[in-house]
Description:
By secondary structure, this protein is of the alpha/beta class. The protein has helices at 50-58, 84-96, 113-123, 146-157, 166-176, 186-189, 221-229, 248-257, 273-276, 278-291; strands at residues 10-16, 22-28, 32-39, 61-66, 107-111, 134-138, 193-195, 201-203, 235-240, 262-266. The strands form two sheets. An eight-stranded mixed beta sheet has the order 1-2-4-3-5-6-9-10, sandwiched between helices. The protein has a two-stranded antiparallel ribbon with strand order 7-8. Strand 1 (10-16) and strand 2 form a beta hairpin. The longest helix has 14 residues, at 278-291. The two termini are 24 Å apart.
Amino acid sequence: MVAIPSPVHSARASLVSFDGIALATQHWRGQRSPSLLFAHGFGQTRHAWNGAARALAAQGFGATTFDARGHGESERVPRGDYHMEQFVADLLAVAASTPSGDGRAPVLVGASMGGLLGLLAAGEAEEGKEPFSALVLVDITPRWETAGVERILGFMRAHPNGFADYDEAASAIEAYLPHRRERKTEAQLKPLLRQDHDGRLRWHWDPALLDGPIQQSERYQPRLFAAAAQVQVPVLLLSGARSDVVSSHTVDEFLRLVPHARHVALPDATHMVAGDANDAFTREIATFLETL
């Protein structure tokens, strides 16, 4: 018998974090357990997960996506005073509001920055108070390839004056991601850009983020290694075979650190795994959920 996909419904909401910062969230309805919590990478928004959340919700899995502080529709921190503890606390707050129907903690799907925050939250939790029932790390390990990260930051710093229109922004993305076959449409770009007082279109994220935790990210690596070694819940590492952020060396190192983790490399994906190979990406997550 062929399974009939469930109708997909999602609703926009808002959650106020510990320090009063409002976080934009999106809830995708589903009855199957466990629920999913998606945490995006640096410079992204919750919309990076729309395809995966919609596909998994159609299979019955509830999902929550959210914009990290300083990103998308979430509020920015006054005076640009960002630090890592804020992001971890935000993730824990959203996780606490995303239980599964049977009371289980959600499965975290974290890309890049979102995955690192998940490792810290899971590995540093008190025993018996784990915030997630499992982790899916998307192209991220506690040690990363510096050249790949610098390439990403170079793109983020490359357009301080923004863009005159959506077509100019689409051309910039096309040059940055030449392997993508489809050019971004205006509808796809609108969630990624905001119009400033001068009429220019600029990325949705707070420029102060570039001078905050990202500049200090490598100093967190010892803490990330220690946290990863304490993770007890099931772990799936999904990497892009064409990634320049995660390599065979960093993957092998992670698997020695977390020997119960499973690793799958998606052959057609770069660091932007969900955007490059969403069908394969969601298929691997669905398979992993069945093992839980």
